[in-house]
């Protein structure tokens, strides 16, 4: 974190974390409290290991981290803003269309397992498919690599299908409580399509949630759809990867209670959005994984070699609504039409890495 951003954040959290000196002890200053907390989040080290660089005993440091994280989430609550009106959702869609050539996309969704230490007496409650213990972080991001909706806390034992269905995002989506715009015509075309989120195979195919076609027996037209969908999906993948690379605590087993681990995760997400807006060139020096629009070649970021967060498992394609299948077919037809095709997209597809399983 650059000096200016640290000072700005310190000014906001100081009233919530400052302590009074006593006759027996001088209070740890707000700047030391904030610095120690950020060091804990960024380094991924344990409280025990941080007692030497911070000069604070582990038990005291644990309390400081909890109090400071709570303060950070409070003062930065405005940095995660879920669109509340149709116009706000349409504004998100405009940026996805302009930057990533996917019209009517109102967000890219992804989810990861964040490892935690097995809580005492919890049995297999947090036990996940990789035989570790976790809570699920699910987020929706916009075209600028910022979270616009976050849900964290579902226990790892729940199947990933169940974990998704328990999120506030999914409940509001299926209950039509997100104020998503009504279906509208696609650019240069009279085909009416709903506004959709872009996801991967870990999510169900819904009228307002598009996922790729299976690679088994895939056609060239389906590959084109997958290629176009991969562009907004990559934004979510980039965002989660940057988050993990900047806050290494998320890539380690968080040795705290589930409640405190959830607070840690939320703090990291809030800090991500805050620093993206303040000084992204300093915050994310490793860059982003991006596609060259002229060649389709992917340029990989510095963090691409780091271990990724544990992904959600792909869902079986069962009981897919016919209406959702039709929406996906409509997008497929559009992306393969004169109106919706990108110039040279078949060549870009080859360079992008798709097409190896195309049917001739």
Descriptors:
360 residues; 2 domains; hydrolase
Mean pLDDT: 87
For the sheet with most strands, the description reads: 6 strands, mixed
Order of helices and strands: HHHHHEEEHHEEEEHHEEEHH
Helix content: 40-55%
What is the total tally of β strands? 10
Q: Which helices and strands occur, and which strands form pairs?
A:
Blueprint: H1 3-17, H2 30-43, H3 51-54, H4 58-75, H5 86-100, E1 105-115, E2 134-141, E3 147-155, H6 160-165, H7 168-174, E4 184-185, E5 192-193, E6 196-198, E7 209-210, H8 220-246, H9 258-283, E8 290-291, E9 298-299, E10 310-311, H10 322-335, H11 345-352
Helix pairs in contact: 1-2, 1-4, 2-4, 4-9, 8-10
Brief account:
Residues 109-273 form the DDE Tnp4 domain. With 360 residues, this protein is of the alpha+beta class. The protein has 11 helices and 10 strands.
Report on this model:
The protein has about 350 residues and is of the alpha+beta class. The chain folds into 2 domains: about 5-75; about 80-350, no CATH class. About 45% of the residues lie in helices and about 10% in strands. The protein has 11 helices and 10 strands. The protein has helices spanning about 5-15, 30-45, 50-55, 60-75, 85-100, 160-165, 170-175, 220-245, 260-285, 320-335, 345-350; strands spanning about 105-115, 135-140, 145-155, 185, 190-195, 195-200, 210, 290, 300, 310. The strands form 3 sheets. Strands 1, 2, 3, 6, 7 and 10 form a 6-stranded mixed β-sheet that branches. Strands 4-5 form a two-stranded antiparallel ribbon. A hairpin with a 5-residue loop joins strand 2 and strand 3. Helix 1 crosses helix 4 and helix 2 (about 30-45) packs across helix 4 (about 60-75). The longest helix is centred in the middle third of the chain and has 27 residues, at about 220-245.
């Amino acid at each position: 974190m650059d000096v200016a951003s640290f000072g700005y954040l310190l000014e906001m959290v100081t009233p919530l974390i400052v302590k009074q000196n006593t006759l027996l002890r001088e209070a740890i200053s707000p700047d030391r409290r904030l610095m120690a907390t950020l060091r804990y989040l960024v380094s991924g080290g344990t409280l025990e290991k941080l007692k030497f660089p911070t000069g604070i005993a582990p038990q005291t440091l644990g309390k400081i981290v909890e109090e400071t994280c709570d303060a950070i989430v409070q003062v930065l609550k405005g940095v995660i803003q879920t669109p509340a009106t149709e116009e706000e959702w349409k504004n998100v869609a405009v940026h996805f269309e302009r930057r990533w050539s996917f019209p009517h996309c109102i967000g890219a969704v992804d989810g990861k397992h964040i490892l935690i230490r097995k809580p005492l007496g919890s049995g297999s409650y947090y036990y996940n498919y990789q035989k570790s213990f976790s809570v699920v972080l699910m987020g929706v991001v916009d075209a600028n690599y910022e979270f616009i909706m976050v849900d964290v806390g579902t226990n790892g034992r729940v199947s990933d299908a169940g974990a998704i269905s328990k999120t506030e995002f999914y409940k509001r989506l299926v209950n039509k409580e997100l104020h998503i715009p009504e279906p509208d015509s696609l650019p240069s075309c009279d085909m009416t399509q709903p506004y959709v989120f872009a996801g991967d195979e870990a999510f169900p195919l819904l009228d307002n949630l598009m996922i790729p076609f299976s690679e088994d027996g895939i056609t060239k037209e389906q590959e084109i759809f997958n290629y176009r969908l991969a562009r907004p999906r990559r934004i979510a993948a980039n965002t989660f990867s940057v988050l993990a690379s900047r806050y290494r605590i998320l890539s380690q087993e968080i040795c705290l209670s589930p409640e405190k681990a959830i607070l840690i995760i939320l703090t990291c997400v809030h800090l991500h959005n805050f620093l993206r807006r303040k000084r992204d060139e300093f915050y994310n020096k490793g860059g982003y994984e991006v596609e060259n629009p002229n060649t389709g070649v992917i340029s990989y970021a510095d963090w691409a070699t780091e271990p990724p967060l544990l992904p959600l498992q792909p869902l079986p394609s069962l009981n897919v609504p016919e209406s959702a299948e039709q929406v996906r077919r409509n997008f497929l037809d559009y992306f393969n039409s004169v109106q919706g095709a990108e110039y040279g997209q078949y060549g870009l597809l080859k360079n992008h890495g798709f097409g190896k399983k195309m049917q001739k």
